[in-house]
Design goal:
- This is Zinc ribbon domain-containing protein YjdM.
- It comes from Pseudaquabacterium rugosum.
- Belongs to the YjdM family.
- InterPro entries: YjdM, YjdM_C, YjdM_N.
- The chain contains 1 helix and 11 strands; from the N terminus they run βββαββββββββ.
- It is mostly beta strands.
- A 3-stranded antiparallel sheet has the order 1-2-3, with no helix packed on it. It has a 3-stranded antiparallel sheet with strand order 7-4-11, with no helix packed on it. It has a 3-stranded antiparallel sheet with strand order 8-9-10, with no helix packed on it.
- Strand 9 and strand 10 form a beta hairpin.
């Protein structure tokens, strides 16, 4: 008997694993067991993680892990740029910060790592 959880989308019990993902063959929904959805459901608050999976908090210092082109400008935030005193926000870009030489901006947590 399978100990895998049912699909959160269609409640099918025929789920299977593919690496770290759980997949439903009936509706093609893919999710991770114990992923961000589980963290929200258990604690009731949103957990924001960096590119390496470490939990971020207000006031942390992070570094950028990918060159980021700024929309509407010719400037680029280079790999390794250190960003101090971040603030976590809701939305797609979940980090609000100020970068020296560029100014105030918002970043996605997937493109930073905690120092």
């Amino acid at each position: 008997m399978s100990t895998l959880p049912p699909c959160p989308s269609c409640a099918s019990t025929f789920t299977y694993t593919d690496g770290t993902l759980l997949i439903c063959p009936e509706c093609a929904h893919e999710w991770t067991a114990g992923g961000p959805e589980a963290a929200v459901a258990d604690s009731g608050e949103r957990v924001i993680r960096d590119a390496n999976g470490q939990v971020l908090q207000d006031g942390d210092t992070v570094t950028v892990v990918k060159d980021l082109k700024l929309k509407g400008s010719s400037q680029v935030v280079k790999v390794g740029t250190k960003v101090k005193n971040i603030r976590l926000t809701d939305g797609d870009h979940d980090i609000d910060c100020r970068i020296d030489g560029i100014g105030a901006m918002q970043l996605k947590s997937a493109y930073v790592k905690k120092v």
